[in-house]
DUF2023 domain-containing protein
Amino acid sequence: MQVFIHHIYEFEKGIRNLILHTISEDLLSFVENRLNSKNISYKIYKIKNGRYNVFFGDASCINVIKKINKSNLSEYSPEEDFILGIMLGYDRKKQCDRYIQFKNKENIKVS
């Protein structure tokens, strides 16, 4: 939970606009209560093994996540993956390299 609390701190200080945090089901109500009490926008997706991906942060960023509307990150298109990585603050050059790698794999499958 210390990492979750630190993520909230980073959001409140403007260091991050969007955070992705994975939790177990037993922490779900705590996380939701904390985000609600701080009036932080969020979207939660259930994933495998009784775990949950919690996206939280700026409302406009959460709206993008809601528009993509895919609970499984492996289902993201290369473009959606690129957008998510940039929104999460990942290295831009590495995201570009990752996108090209995904697109090259996609072209191999099509051929």
User: Anything to note?
Assistant: The longest helix spans residues 92-110. Strands lie at 18-24, 41-46, 51-57.
